[in-house]
Amino acid sequence: MKMVFRWFGEGNDTVTLEQIKQIPGVEGIVWALHDVPAGEEWPMDKILQVKEAADKAGLHMKVVESVNIHEDIKLGLPSRDLYIDNYKKTIVKLAEVGVKVICYNFMPVFDWVRTDLHKELEDGSTALFYEKEKVAHLNLEEQVQRINANPNFTMPGWEPERLGSLTELFDAYREVTEEQLFDNAKYFLEAIIPFAEKYDIRMAIHPDDPPWPIFGLPRIITSQANIRRFLGLVDSPYNGLTMCSGSLGANPANDIVGIVNEFADRIPFAHIRNVRVYENGDFIETSHRTTDGTVDIAGIVNALHENDYEGFCRPDHGRHIWGEQCRPGYGLYDRALGIMYLWGLWDANRRKLQSGRMGD
Ligand code: DNO
Ligand code: MN
Hints:
Elements: E1 2-6, H1 17-21, E2 26-31, H2 44-57, E3 60-65, H3 71-75, H4 80-96, E4 101-105, E5 116-120, E6 126-130, H5 132-136, H6 140-148, H7 160-164, H8 166-173, H9 178-198, E7 202-206, H10 224-233, E8 239-244, H11 245-249, H12 256-263, E9 269-272, E10 275-277, E11 283-285, H13 297-306, E12 312-315, H14 333-354
Parallel strand pairs: 1-2, 1-12, 2-3, 3-4, 4-7, 7-8, 8-9, 9-12
Antiparallel strand pairs: 5-6, 6-11, 10-11
The protein binds D-mannose and manganese (II) ion.
D-mannose binds at residues 65-66, 103-105, 111-112, 156, 206, 209, 244, 246-247, 271, 316.
InterPro entries: Man_deHydtase, Xyl_isomerase-like_sf
Protein name: Mannonate dehydratase
EC number: 4.2.1.8
């Protein structure tokens, strides 16, 4: 397991590379050019700026999250070929700086969705929260205004250029079924995977978050069966999965240990975090510790270890603790604690294996 840490870039993150370097066992950053709109080719000079900063800090940049997919690809519009071409050009450049994994998602319009970014937990920390009932009645206009009012940070999935054309986008998706979304994914994968293979970059689809349709928009990376179908669309090790325990874990019906066991050789990247799912379907992001949430984090790490997992791994969203002012879900403290918990589980497994006591 190779530990990496998400970094949003100079001036776009409260966490510094020097701080990341001091978290035990972290080898590299998970990065992206967050100011390049989806569909555009990434400029080499900006890629090289990140490389220079990473090199200086002694961190690698082998994992990118995300090269976003233009909506026209997800919608299956004729203009998709142009955006697929740009995607390929970006792949060539990323290969040049040593990128090995691209994490991306195939969610229409939005990335992760929450109803409260600072919901208080019993211990006074705050975390991202999802109120199921509220999303059913969410006033989108209000939400858009709220995000626009905080121009300091770009939030994944809520990029201003997407929000501007929200109404048109919703209209465009009106006729798109899950089946069509699968077809459009297949078209994308058939074009991209052979190319990714040539440049030795593993594509790793991120599960939908939450893993069910919202606002009437279809979502397909939601369950073990759908992941199986997606990975089968183009059956290559370069068509892989970002195993995100928090996203999949928002639906307690998902057997994440089972998912790890079934797709182990197709998981180049793992996001490990916990959530607590309540009986009414609401969920809150908790500390990474198994007993703090409803996701079997210990079981997941055990399963990765049993499958000799050699891919990349990062803690995912953390709580906001110790008064830290940070990008929602992406503070330093709780994610660093998360890493130490993951290492603890990993090393305990290794020790058991070494002393031949596995299965005791
Ligand atoms: C949620 C996060 C996501 C992820 C993107 C990948 O669990 O990991 O925001 O970064 O969906 O494209
Ligand atoms: Mn994730």
